[in-house]
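ok new one. same drill as before - structure tokens go in, u give me an amino acid for every spot. 499 of them this time. try not to just spam alanines like last time pls lmao
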């Protein structure tokens, strides 16, 4: 009798614990293009956030930590846009694999393990958000009308359901991270999660802080960042800088529509036209008929020129040529001013700059067998995967992020704000200025930080667990340009160590 009771007890425990584990149906067991052994478990699939079969289905790819999944943080990664898939981060930045272009061209890429994957030290969720982006979809097109506040609410709903499906990670420290327009996504979502914790939402999310890289933050600071950046990087002369500063009275954002200021800003636009906005060191062949484009593939060019801005990734996975369009909007007033009109015209849209040709990611993610392996809906159901979509109608309705940052950091949440210092899309000058504007006491005076025995950038630490950090020589997508350095500061910060 006692033996039967013990058997039933053990059986009931097994059933209990088997129900409190990652759903088996989402386990990724193989990936086309990869022939090795996964360094850790990987899961992917959809979570319906509104219980309506035709509603919002958000797609995630979850990589379990290669170190200690039970205690390592869970980190949510969001790419920007708005409208860009977080597979950008997975494929090109800090995912578990490096992707090698297939041979012949257009064939399935080959995958190799990434020595600098952020899953080395954390569990990481790559989320396509909002609905309509990447593999996330709805059968109701009206669901693609959204904005800052709705996106934060939807992603919070996703997290609550995700942690219910993965209860073994509920007690892990949780961080929200992202880059570019995720400078809006991250603080709005963190605020939503913090509010949910206070309101007693279940399960309780163990939010500890957040990370923003080269992030859009505030129209005034972002709008005033470009001219000082261009001058500091020797892209405009002292004369131009002094003229535009005098005409705009030092405020290029508020006074941009003034006749005199606007005329002087045209000098800046002319000087910057043709540069790669995502990394000013990198050759740019965007503009049809220019010397830059005609020089493409010219082996007579000096090696020093050919090497400019080349990523330190072990494999060259992204080609910066005329092709894939990535949204770039130079923030001025409530809309945008495109500083590169000839590039925009070539792209066929005044709001898009053709910088990236993401053939590797597109080829892999639009392969039928890949979609089957990662549990994504086929192309016949949701269409092709695009790095950045035009499906969604997005409204920036949350205003400046500075009050969000102040509120979150004063509640005790840790914040790391990092910037690749050669990014002209969201220049470090704006991020440095707004973090300083909070008025927090400086606890760690401006100093270099070290990676692999070399100066990797500079940082300044403030009260309320706020850190601003630059990465020397990196562009807009920092882990793509400086993978080792990115893993270094990421792992140290997550562990609470000095960077």
């Amino acid at each position: 009798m006692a033996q039967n009771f013990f058997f039933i007890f053990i059986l009931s425990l097994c059933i209990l614990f088997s129900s409190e584990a990652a759903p088996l149906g989402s386990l990724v067991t193989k990936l086309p293009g990869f022939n090795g052994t996964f360094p850790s478990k990987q899961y992917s699939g959809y979570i319906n956030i509104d219980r309506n079969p035709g509603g919002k289905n958000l797609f995630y790819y979850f990589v379990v930590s290669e170190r200690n999944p039970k205690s390592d943080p869970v980190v949510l990664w969001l790419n920007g846009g708005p409208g860009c898939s977080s597979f950008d981060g997975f494929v090109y930045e800090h995912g578990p694999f490096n992707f090698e272009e297939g041979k012949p061209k257009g064939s399935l890429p080959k995958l190799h393990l990434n020595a600098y994957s952020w899953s080395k030290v954390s569990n990481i969720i790559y989320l396509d958000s909002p609905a309509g982006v990447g593999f996330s979809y709805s059968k109701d097109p009206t669901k693609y009308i959204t904005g800052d506040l709705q996106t934060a609410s939807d992603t919070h709903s996703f997290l609550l359901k995700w942690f219910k499906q993965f209860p073994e990670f509920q007690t892990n420290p949780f961080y929200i991270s992202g880059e570019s327009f995720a400078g809006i996504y991250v603080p709005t979502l963190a605020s939503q999660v913090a509010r949910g914790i206070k309101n007693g939402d279940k399960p309780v999310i163990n939010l500890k802080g957040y990370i923003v890289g080269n992030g859009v933050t505030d129209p005034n600071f972002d709008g005033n960042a470009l001219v000082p950046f261009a001058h500091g990087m020797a892209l405009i002369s002292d004369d131009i800088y002094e003229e535009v500063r005098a005409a705009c009275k030092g405020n290029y954002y508020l006074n941009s529509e003034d006749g005199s200021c606007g005329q002087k800003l045209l000098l800046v636009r002319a000087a910057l036209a043709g540069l790669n906005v995502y990394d000013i060191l990198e050759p740019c062949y965007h503009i049809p008929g220019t010397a830059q484009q005609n020089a493409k593939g010219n082996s007579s060019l000096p090696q020093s020129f050919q090497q400019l801005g080349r990523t330190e990734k072990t494999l060259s996975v992204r080609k910066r040529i005329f092709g894939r369009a990535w949204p770039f909007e130079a923030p001025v007033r409530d809309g945008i001013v495109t500083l590169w009109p000839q590039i925009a015209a070539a792209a066929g849209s005044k709001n898009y700059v053709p910088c990236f040709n993401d053939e590797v990611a597109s080829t892999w993610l639009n392969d039928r067998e890949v979609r089957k392996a990662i549990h994504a809906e086929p192309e016949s159901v949701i269409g092709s995967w695009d790095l950045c979509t035009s499906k969604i109608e997005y409204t920036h309705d949350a205003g400046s992020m500075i009050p969000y940052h102040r509120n979150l950091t004063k509640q005790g949440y840790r914040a790391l704000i990092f910037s690749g210092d050669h990014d002209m899309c969201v220049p470090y000058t704006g991020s440095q200025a707004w973090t300083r504007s909070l008025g927090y006491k400086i606890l760690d005076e401006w100093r270099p930080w070290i990676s692999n025995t070399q100066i990797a950038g500079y940082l300044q630490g403030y009260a309320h667990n706020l850190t601003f950090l630059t990465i020397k020589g990196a562009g807009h997508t920092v882990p793509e340009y400086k993978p080792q350095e990115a893993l270094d500061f990421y792992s140290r910060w997550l562990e609470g160590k000095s960077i």
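The first helix runs from residue 2 to 19. and btw Residues 1-20, 285-311, 313-354 have pLDDT under 50 and may be disordered.
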